[in-house]
Known about the structure:
Elements (H helix, E strand, L loop, with lengths): L12 H8 L1 E4 L1 H7 L4 H5 L21 E3 L2 E5 L4 E3 L27 H4 L2 H17 L9 E11 L19 E10 L1 E3 L2 E5 L5 E4 L7 E5 L3 E5 L2 E3 L7 E10 L10
Antiparallel strand pairs: 1-10, 2-5, 3-4, 3-5, 5-13, 6-10, 6-13, 7-12, 8-9, 8-11
Amino acid sequence: MHPPPPLTALADVPAQLSTAGWAVLDAATLARLCSAALPAWLAWQPLWPALPPDPHLRDGGRYRKRRHGCFRVTAQTLQPVPHRAHWQPVEYNALHGGYERWFEPLPPELQQDPAWALLLQGLAGVADGLRADVGNAGEWFVEAHPFRIDTEGGIGRPTPEGAHRDGVDLVAVLIVDRHNVKGGETRVFDARGPQGVRFTLREPFSVLLLDDERVIHETTPIQPVDASQPAWRDTLVLTYRRGGFQGPGAA
């Protein structure tokens, strides 16, 4: 059994991110941070089984389903942007970097839910605190990635690219659901040395927050507990970046 994550109290989030570069909040703490009601987020869980297959997996797997959406967000506002490709440089994603990856857009019922805006705006406030020393104007370029990793073929890989950074400022990894799964251990390491932590996120809408400039992260493969039954790990990954979305020629 993998250990549960060490949790951070709401008042301690800025200090924890400043000293360690990561923090884990349970679902109730995240809801307080975002002035949201947890049942509204839990109502999104039925959207994950309908995620379409990822057409870009270069390891030949069929275990990942996903969608993608982009927003300009402040702690008080949210503006969807026209659907666009996801792009990462090869320096951050050696497996899938360097080319445009198009995914199906987020469903309207997710984007139009007031609880969606509360989540993204609440985390924008965390990003503001993370980069307060560099004079950020408060607008963040946010990419949203709902993922389902299943065990079709016997194993699923949440991070097929391995331990990595994302090339952004703040990464938020929210657990949406786990079913019949073993594995899926989260690992976070200091980008400048061997120091790291390992734990397993289990509670729906608990969140791992990462200062992407300071730490690298990965999640170990998953397998079914009962091989005769379906198994999956559902997540929502939100990335916050200053200055613009990543793309060919982006700063």
